[in-house]
């Protein structure tokens, strides 16, 4: 394997020497430039595998070199070296396309990890320029979750390929059910951290009193019930990606601690006495309007800027209706395999009904609709009368219970509570009836379905929906 070449741009002899020694010990060759103009000349003369540049140079700054490389050599990863505490400058470099940054005084372990990650980019394959067919390109095999030939999906995949080459924090915005976690997983899968952990966390599902311990871990005896050391989410994701879903639900005290962990790249477990360095890429998402939360004081502006270095918007399903046919085929294939029903297909009238629906619940709603339809159809062909669509029309936006700024309707809340109680009661009765039928037939599901007056497929759907093993 040929020796990799790294361009080092820095006018401080001590830093240059440190970087040259570090690179040599990693089996890499270093070429040094002390100014912008010689660096540009070297980039034009020969190929490099990585560029490390200081932010402050005698004839300019590193941001100018980042811009130059993005225009002339966009495939070349460039990392910037910043003064300690200059996080704003580093964030600006990431926005311009820098791969990552390291702060002075340079931590050699962090530097080696950065270099390793940047050089792994070459092994991740080409971008999406080969063509729009997401089923045939090497980086988008047929089992990729991001299906569709529509223009919004092609743009989304192309952006994901670019973002996968960076370590910049990405904020993924989109409606509920649009596939924000799938996008985060794809950014991770196509990047240099693909072999390391991807750790998703729903920020709204963690009780407030346990949040700090869940994120940063705790030491034995730190509080009542801490009978042993606990590794937090940051350490679990070390070297990989931490995906903060529904980040808008974080309470303000936790936002302060999260901001420090991101800026310092270190965490302190509850009850611990020292900070632990962590190498984690942060991806975050929410279906809420985070800018509005900042204006209302519910979300810290400084944390918002750290998370939203790059924003990626996931298109709603109603804006890519031409993808519904392919999405439906993939979902039905999965249902057929899981339920062992044989191949299920959509009749033309069923497809037309789906393409005319507004899908306020997006892809998740499409999955639920098709699961219900699969239980209602008699054969393997799903018709329109098997599809139970909510009363939303073509182009319908997501339905809101009330205007955002209007006071809650107490009668409406009471009705919702009564509806939920009735649903719970009916589900309990249905669960009991199925359990009794299974007990009477010795666990034979075919006989139990016959006893209940259901098809085998309908019973399987209810077993799954009700969580009955």
- Radius of gyration of CA atoms, rounded to a whole number: 27 Å
Broad shape: elongated
Task: State the share of residues found in helices, binned by percent.
Answer: 40-55%
Beta fraction: 5-15%
Q: Kindly, what is the distance between the CA atoms of the first and last residues, rounded to a whole number of angstroms? A: 53 Å
Count, helices = 18
Q: Strands of the largest sheet, in order across it?
A: 2-1-3-6-7
Overall pLDDT, averaged? 85
The chain-level structural class is alpha/beta
Return residue spans where pLDDT drops below 50 for at least 5 consecutive residues.
125-143, 395-413
Largest sheet: 5 strands, parallel
Instruction: Give the strand tally.
Output: 16
Could you explain the architecture of this structure?
The chain has 469 residues and is an alpha/beta fold. 44% of the residues lie in helices and 13% in strands. The strands form 5 sheets. It has a 5-stranded parallel sheet, with helices on both faces. Strands 9-10-13-8-14 form a 5-stranded parallel sheet. Strands 4-5 form a two-stranded antiparallel sheet. Helix 2 (36-45) runs parallel beside helix 3 (62-72), helix 13 crosses helix 15 (362-376) and helix 16 packs across helix 17. The longest helix is centred in the last third of the chain and has 31 residues, at 410-440. It starts with a strand and ends with a helix. The model is unreliable at 125-143 and 395-413 (pLDDT under 50).
